[in-house]
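Encode chain A's predicted structure.
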Amino acid sequence: MAQILLFHHALGLTPGVVEFVDALRKAGHTVDAPDLFDGQLFERVEDGVAHEEGLGWEEMIRRTEAAAADLPADLVYLGMSLGVVYGTRLAVLRPGARGLIGLYSPIPPESVAGAALPAGVPAQYHWMQGDPWVDEGAPEALVAQVPQAEVNVYEGDTHLFADPSSVDFDAVAAALAMERILTFLGAL
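Encoded structure for chain A:
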């Protein structure tokens, strides 16, 4: 079983994120899911992104590094949307990563960490085909930078499709993503 450090999306540590964490734990994994927003929840992604930007890059780096500080090196980093940025950064810069999962956002490692994902670190990504939050060119850059990654693109045009507490929730895509994530984790 894997030890996972999960970074939530822009709506915060929502009941849907907690449900996702619980599903991973029920499957036998150890999951740490720090609340990077100190209990604040948002109804719109735009508001959560504005909050993150208000905290600033250096503060978010401090918070995510502090979350990893007392954990073992061989973590699987699982980021959700904006959390993919911070999970990717740690998977690249903190030695010993066991794996990387990017849910909702194809974030190319070099754009957030200035370096490639270390050789031998398996990666898996999930996003929707028509997601308005996916930056133009990001999927292509991700595939170029992490050619060994398992990429899963779902039909639809929502963002937080696996969070049942989000208006973006898509039960079919969410179930398939969870199945694929559990398979990925089981193979590590």
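The beta strands are 3-7, 30-32, 76-80, 99-103, 123-128, 150-154.
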